[in-house]
Amino acid sequence: MKMVGIIDGVFWGIALIALGAWFLVRQYVPVHIPVFRIIVALFFVYLGVRVLVHGPVIRDRDHNNTVVFSDSTIPYSPDNGRDYNVIFSNGTIDLSGVQVTSTSVRTEVNVVFGAGTLRINRAAPVRVRMSSAFGTVEAPSGRSVAFGDAVYTTDSYREGAPALEIRATSVFGRLAIQN
Fold first, then answer.
1. Which of 20, 123, 147, 166 has its Cα between 20 and 30 A from that of 4?
2. In the predicted model, is pLDDT for residue 137 greater than 70?
């Protein structure tokens, strides 16, 4: 992780020095250099190297609730946000530690071109609205959705009472719900 900071600093340092030197030199040397094309090309090379070394930079560092091009587990945290995403990856979203108090807790779990596992607490009141398009969402009861919508509830769920309400969506992927 420290290496990525060094690569970033070196890249931007060299890029800024080269740009400054070019501005100075172009006043005195009548040579035409396609600087804009070179800068755009270097920027794309930089992004490619960054993705190879560190992974894509599309996740929020404060809220690690998205798994992209990797395999990881995301535990529940009230500070983590309400949306959990597994994109081009394998991931586990662990919502078994959610404490339902006087109000319902709402969250959303999305799997896009990947495989995900959603862990819930069987003893807690949980309602999962399962939705899928060209994918599969599988409930612990054996019910699954390949196209369309379905609802799964735990035995302790009561309509109108506070509960963990999850909207689980799979698009070209697979999401398995486990107790």
1. 20
2. yes
